[in-house]
Amino acid sequence: MSATETRTAPSTGIEPAPLHAPNKRWTRFILPGFTWLMIVYLTLPIFVMILYSFNDIQVTPPRQTPRFQGFTLHWWRDLFGVAGLSQALKTSLMIAPLSALAATGLGTLIGLALGRYRFRGKAPINFVIFLAIAVPEIVLGSSLLSMFVLAQAPPIGFTTILLSHIGFSIAFVAVTVRARVQGLDRSLEDAAQDLFANPMTTFIKVTLPLIAPAILAGFLLAFVLSLDDFVITNFVSGTESTFPVWVYGATRIGLPPQVNVMGTLLFSAGLFFAVLNVIVQRRRARP
């Protein structure tokens, strides 16, 4: 046998095992199964609400029943058939954007100051913002009611609801904007000023577009918090009723099916804006 010949080991007929054998144990289904279970648990009430917005209720006056009696579009066509419910939803849709706009403006300024500058009193302000988020709503609602009554400033009603919603929404906007500001690349602003841009131009052309997603997120968060708040609103509403307050009061005599229709519309609107925000963010992220 020459030196150039290759020696081969005799074949045993057994293939070597792969280095990374696929894991076929049942444990790999635990995490996906738990995830889907949580998704179903969280979304099931919403799907029930959507389903029962088409329930053909036969009782008079129409009130929600646990039995699905048939399919109908009558409640969608008669959406504003309940006078008090329509007025309550109108009040909520008036207060939510106003409070969200005011809270977004004030919260953005606070977030910019806390995320960028060092000044005396910064630590107490951070603590107050954390306290505004962490304090129970029942404590905040009762304290706001006491303040309005003792101050005798505005009548208890629309104005007090608006002021209260602005107050508790500012902290959420400030935290959202502060997190974005702290992650900004300051070299971009320095480069703009090196190119002879004044501070106002730098803020409008560079800083504002960079923090715009956080401002939008803060606005949407403040809008949703105002729209679905019940505890604080129940303290400071007086004779005024928002959508959550009216629904809570109607549960004692039975909810009309239009509540499910309005809830479905509000959920669909929120889902639409959430998907739209994701699409816009993905388009901005593309090179």
Task: Tell me the count of domains.
Answer: 2
The third-level CATH topology of the largest domain is MetI-like fold
**Tertiary shape:** globular
Task: Give the C-level CATH assignment of the largest domain.
Answer: Mainly Alpha
Describe the structure.
68% of the residues lie in helices and 0% in strands. The protein has helices at residues 30-52, 74-77, 83-116, 122-134, 137-151, 158-182, 186-194, 199-228, 231-236, 243-250, 258-285. The model is unreliable at 1-6 (pLDDT under 50). Helix 1 (30-52) crosses helix 11 (258-285), helix 3 packs antiparallel against helix 8 (199-228) and helix 7 (186-194) packs antiparallel against helix 8. With 287 residues, the chain is mainly alpha-helical. It has two domains: 31-71, no CATH class; 89-255, MetI-like fold (Orthogonal Bundle), CATH 1.10.3720. The chain contains eleven helices and no strands.
Fold blueprint:
Blueprint: H1 30-52, H2 74-77, H3 83-116, H4 122-134, H5 137-151, H6 158-182, H7 186-194, H8 199-228, H9 231-236, H10 243-250, H11 258-285
Helix pairs in contact: 1-11, 3-6, 3-8, 3-10, 4-6, 6-8, 7-8
Provide a compact summary of the structure.
Helix content is 68%, strand content 0%. By secondary structure, the chain is an all-alpha fold.
Attribute tags:
287 residues; MetI-like fold; 2 domains
